[in-house]
Amino acid sequence: MSDSSEGVDVDRWRTELEEKRAEKDDFFATHPQSPIPPDERDEFDGLSYFDPDPTYRVRATVDVPDDPEVVRMETTAGGEMRYLRVATLAFDLERPDADLADGPFELAAYRLESPNEQSLFVPFRDKTTGQQSYRGGRYMELSPDRDLEDGDEIVVDFNLAYTPFCAYSETFDCPLPPEENWLEAAIPAGERFE
């Protein structure tokens, strides 16, 4: 199930990932909407990332509820935001340093209560949280090309996991991953924050 390289040109995937990272570093360094405070941008020399690892690009099986449940997520500023839990993503991890796959794991995917919202928001914590990655957790955005149905498969690439803007500036208020999205595994992929 989680053969991450199945049907994927790993060299091309790695090149595209590195290009996305370079674009993001440029945005953080130069864009007026960067979360890096303006007086710190001259010293900014790029975000810290885990090395690209296709092991953490997995296929997840989708479970879609009949009636999406409202989930209230606490935020870094002490407020709360309302999301709809629109899917559960089940997956395994096959570690290069382990004989057996870890899992199964599940992550809930959410959408804002907005009729125009199509992307899936997947906030999570893992065993790197607060040590190698941001203490408030990390996020992923998934953009399926159609409405998901039970049993569909979707690629979840943890190499695209990113640190929320509130890690860089208190002017941002970010939702914290709910406990159902706390993974009992280390995911050394995506953005680091030490």
UniProtKB/TrEMBL annotation:
InterPro entries: DUF1684. Residues 21-46 are annotated as: Disordered. Coiled coil: none annotated. This is DUF1684 domain-containing protein. Gene3D superfamilies: 6.10.250.1680. The lineage of its organism: Archaea, Methanobacteriati, Methanobacteriota, Stenosarchaea group, Halobacteria. It holds the Pfam family DUF1684.
